[in-house]
């Protein structure tokens, strides 16, 4: 969710728009305001300077908005710098709007400020009358004095006027809204072939000559793979063990436990006298998973077995037999075949293995690419993707009805903005002759059918769509307009943001 909040010009615009009318929200919604003690300018835009107190006030508003949007995901520490940046941006944008408003001759009369303040319900008593004392107390507490508050309100109202002026240039016609709705609500069903690295192709046999040539010319690729998968070659301590298990029922009493222990000790004595462990395990072990393999458990590292068993297994030397080991399953007799210490296999010991892996992947990709190209050739020759795929016994997947999505996600396929965009411009039954990369896979697509929204649906949603498009257009134009002026102020040295003055106080 945080990524969504950070993305796009629309969010940037929303930051300063909310900031313009934010003082009232702060007073009513957050309780006691934050008060700073420093007079150093945190933000300076031309003649307008904002100190620590103004900065912290706006930052608190931004923080409240984030908390509401993120809920339980809100992390004050992780968002600390983000909130600082957002607060500074709000003050910068507000000052830019006010400066441009003044340059155009826009003004704010004292009565406009008074009307704005009178509209705040928080300054009215129980009878609905304006409480002058409450207002003055708040202005002094929040701004230091009434003059500072009125100056800030003048800036806010100037910025608001400039925004309204900018918004007046934004237009969206009925035809634009209709076209946008048809495009957004249009649905299609597609068929696609997805070729993975192991789909219908086999890696060529890699011979010694190929390995030698690879290591001579492309060893860097093998080294890169070695670094990427270093955990594969960082081998932990492990043992190869066999065991014989004599089970004990969970409800068994002490007498039954003693009986099974005695049987285990008798088997241990037999093994010490020279009996073959595998033969005894096949005859006596009650572990169905290893009995037929002579009790062989294979090789394992720490953390794979129950603690009591593991402790004994990693303590024994190869060839040693354990005393009967009690676990929740019963009594075990353990024999260690091999005990291998932890090691990091060096590159030189695995370089040929890596070379074969890269060459095999190359061969598979080449074969997969050749298959995709063959399908494209048939599509260009007039066959549908469906016909070409079935002729090669390839799986052809079909979707349900889907709409355009910004991320290009297609159920069963994955995310490919290019593939989805292409599918929407195909005609019914038409196959694309493009090969699309979807992660590590290759995909080809055919449009099965499409449908547009009916006129009744368009009319029902038209007003809301018009407002949505108008809002988007305003956001875009506001953002571009402010950004252009921000850049000029930065170049001329008239815009300074000193967040070090903030962070140095914490």
Care to describe what's here?
By secondary structure, this protein is α+β, with helices and mostly antiparallel strands. The chain is built from 20 helices and 15 strands. The chain has 3 domains: 2-170 and 477-503, Triger factor/SurA peptide-binding fold; 187-205 and 350-451, Chitinase A, domain 3 (Roll), CATH 3.10.50; 237-341, Chitinase A, domain 3. The protein has helices at 2-6, 8-20, 22-29, 52-70, 80-103, 110-118, 132-143, 146-167, 174-185, 208-217, 219-228, 230-233, 254-272, 277-284, 307-315, 347-380, 385-391, 417-423, 455-492, 500-503, and strands at 41-45, 48-51, 187-195, 234-235, 238-247, 296-301, 325-327, 330-340, 343-344, 397-398, 409-410, 414-415, 436-438, 441-451, 495-497. It has a 4-stranded antiparallel sheet. Helix 7 (132-143) crosses helix 8.
Brief description of this entry?
The protein has helices at 2-6, 8-20, 22-29, 52-70, 80-103, 110-118, 132-143, 146-167, 174-185, 208-217, 219-228, 230-233, 254-272, 277-284, 307-315, 347-380, 385-391, 417-423, 455-492, 500-503; strands at 41-45, 48-51, 187-195, 234-235, 238-247, 296-301, 325-327, 330-340, 343-344, 397-398, 409-410, 414-415, 436-438, 441-451, 495-497.
Q: What is the CATH topology classification name of the largest domain?
A: Triger factor/SurA peptide-binding fold
* 3D shape: extended
Number of domains: 3
| Poorly predicted tracts of residues | 1-39, 199-204
| Corresponding CATH architecture of the largest domain | Orthogonal Bundle
Q: β content, as a range?
A: 5-15%
Helical amount: 40-55%
Report mean pLDDT, rounded to a whole number.
Answer: 86
Strand order of the largest sheet: 10-3-14-13
User: Would you state the CATH class of the largest domain?
Assistant: Mainly Alpha
Terminal residue distance? 27 Å
- Total beta-strand segments: 15
Task: Assign the structural class, choosing from mainly alpha, mainly beta, alpha/beta, alpha+beta, or little secondary structure.
Answer: alpha+beta
User: Measured on Cα atoms, how large is the radius of gyration?
Assistant: 37 Å
| Biggest pleated-sheet summary | 4 strands, antiparallel
């Amino acid at each position: 969710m945080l990524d969504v909040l950070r993305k796009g010009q629309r969010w940037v615009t929303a930051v300063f728009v909310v900031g313009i009318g934010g003082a009232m929200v702060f007073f009513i919604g957050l309780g006691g305001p934050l008060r700073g003690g420093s007079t150093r300018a945190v933000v300076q835009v031309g003649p307008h300077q904002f100190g620590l107190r103004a900065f912290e006030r706006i930052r608190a508003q931004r923080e409240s908005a984030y908390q509401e949007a993120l809920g339980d995901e809100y992390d004050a520490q992780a968002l600390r710098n983000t909130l600082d940046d957002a607060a500074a941006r709000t003050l910068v944008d507000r000052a830019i709007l006010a400066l441009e408003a003044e340059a155009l001759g826009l003004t704010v009369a004292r009565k406009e400020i008074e009307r704005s303040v009178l509209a705040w319900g928080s300054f009215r008593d129980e009878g609905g009358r304006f409480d002058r004392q409450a207002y003055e107390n708040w202005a002094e507490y929040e701004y230091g004095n009434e003059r500072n508050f009125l100056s800030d309100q003048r800036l806010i109202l100037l910025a608001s006027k400039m925004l309204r002026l900018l918004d007046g240039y934004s237009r969206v016609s009925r035809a634009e809204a209709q076209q946008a709705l048809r495009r957004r609500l249009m649905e299609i069903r597609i068929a696609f072939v997805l070729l993975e690295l192991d789909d219908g192709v086999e890696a060529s046999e890699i011979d010694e000559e190929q390995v030698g040539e690879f290591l001579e010319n492309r060893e860097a690729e093998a080294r890169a793979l070695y670094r990427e998968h270093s955990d594969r070659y960082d081998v932990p301590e492990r043992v190869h063990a066999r065991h014989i298990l004599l089970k004990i029922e969970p409800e068994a009493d002490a007498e039954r436990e003693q009986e099974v222990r005695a049987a285990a000790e008798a088997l241990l004595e037999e093994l010490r006298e020279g009996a073959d462990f595998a033969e005894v395990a096949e005859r006596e072990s009650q572990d169905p998973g290893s009995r037929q393999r002579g009790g062989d458990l294979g090789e394992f590292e720490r953390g794979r077995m129950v603690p009591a068993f593991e402790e004994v297994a990693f303590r024994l030397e190869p060839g040693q037999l354990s005393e009967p080991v009690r676990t929740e399953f019963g009594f075990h007799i353990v024999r260690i075949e091999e005990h291998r210490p932890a090691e990091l296999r060096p590159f030189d010991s695995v370089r040929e293995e890596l070379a074969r892996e890269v060459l095999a992947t190359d061969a598979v990709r080449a074969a997969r690419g050749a298959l995709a190209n063959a399908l494209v050739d048939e599509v260009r020759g007039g066959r549908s993707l469906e016909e070409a795929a079935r002729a090669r016994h390839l799986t052809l997947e079909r979707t349900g009805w889907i709409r355009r999505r910004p991320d290009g996600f297609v159920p069963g396929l994955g995310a490919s903005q290019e593939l989805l965009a292409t599918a929407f411009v195909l005609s019914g039954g038409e196959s694309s002759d493009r090969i699309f990369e979807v992660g590590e896979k290759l995909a080809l697509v055919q449009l099965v059918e499409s449908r547009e929204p009916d006129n009744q649906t368009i009319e029902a949603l038209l007003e809301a769509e018009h407002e949505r498009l108008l809002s988007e257009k305003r956001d875009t134009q506001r953002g571009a307009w402010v950004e252009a002026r921000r850049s000029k102020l930065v170049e001329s040295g008239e815009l300074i943001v000193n967040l070090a003055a903030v962070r140095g106080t914490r």
